[in-house]
Every structure is written in C-alpha cells, then in structure tokens.
Amino acid sequence: MAQTNERVSPERSARMRLIKGRDTKPEWIVRRALHAAGLRYRLHARELPGRPDVIFRTARVVVFIHGCFWHQHPDPDCRLARMPKSRRDFWEPKLMGNRSRDEAVRATLEEGGWRVIEIWECQLAAPRLAKIIEDVRRAVELGRTKG
Q1: Less CB within 10 Å around the terminal CB: N or C of the chain?
Q2: How many Cα atoms are found within 13 Å in the side-chain-facing hemisphere of 31?
Q3: Following CA atoms 51, 104, 4, 2 in sequence, which dihedral angle do they give, to the nearest 10 degrees?
Q4: From the centroid of its chain, how far is CA 138?
C-alpha cells in the first residue's frame, strides 16, 4: 500500500508541504466569528481524540472545522469535495481513510459525553456562518447549564 514519491515532481512535493493541518483559513474565519460572538475557547487539545480545532471544555463541546476536499464532505451539492480523477488509486483510500477516522473520532468523543459539531469549509459564507455560530453558541450554553 505504501507509495513512493518517484512519480511526484519536486514542485508538487513542495506544494504539498505547504498544506497546513491547523490554523487554516477556514479555522481562522470560524475562530474570529466565535470570538466576535463573545465565545471563548481552547485550541487543538492533544488529550482529546482527533485534536478538535476548537474546544469549550466546561460545556463539553468540540468543533471540527473540516476542509471539504480532505475530509470528503458528504453533501452532494458540495463542489469542493470532488474526488481527483488522476491517481485515484492513491487518493481514494487516503480520503476515505480520513473520513473513516473522522467518524471513529466523533463516536469516541460522543461516547465520552462530548457534543461534536462539524463545520465544513463550504459553509463559511456569511449568512450560513452566522447560523452555524448561533448553533455553536446554543450548544455551549446548553452544555454549561447541564454541568
């Protein structure tokens, strides 16, 4: 299953190294909106499965901000989650593995009493983002009243 980099050009390899796993543009957009809504949070807790992007510890709410391509957003209307046509033998197992891991992490967190919220990159347009931030705010308030 291991792939060698013999078929990958140095230019492509350099480009792939620039892809970040955290502090991405979608994360910054969501974090700024959460902060503007008066919500305070922690980032990337190592001790939690999947290292959630945003954590509201006392409310037991975690937020994952997923890139639609890398996490294969299941919404059929999402244009960002298209499977590449080239090197499908590489991309399909990789991207489906990411999705399977996301599902397992979600299940583990929920079994541990956490409320898991997933925000997708394609949902970050202004009217939709405002509703998502309100949903997060409600979940945090509900979590705080339970504890």
Answers
A1: N
A2: 17
A3: 140
A4: 20
User: pLDDT tens digit string along 91-121?
Assistant: 999 999 999 999 999 999 999 999 999 999 9
List 65's β-bridge partners, or say none: 119
Q: Which residues contact 67 (CB under 8 A, 6 or more apart)?
A: 24, 26, 80, 121
Residue in the structure block whose two tokens are 């919500």: 39
Rg of the chain over Cα atoms, rounded to whole angstroms, equals 17
Q: Phi, psi (5° rounding) for residue 116?
A: -110, 125
- In sign, the C-alpha dihedral spanning 109, 110, 113, 114 is positive
Q: Which two tokens stand for residue 32?
A: 């700024």
Domain boundaries, the chain: 21-146
The H or E element containing residue 131 is helix 126-146
The matching CATH number, chosen from 3.40.50.720, 3.40.960.10, 3.40.50.10260, 3.40.50.300, for 21-146 is 3.40.960.10
- List pLDDT tens digits, range 53-67: 999 999 999 999 999
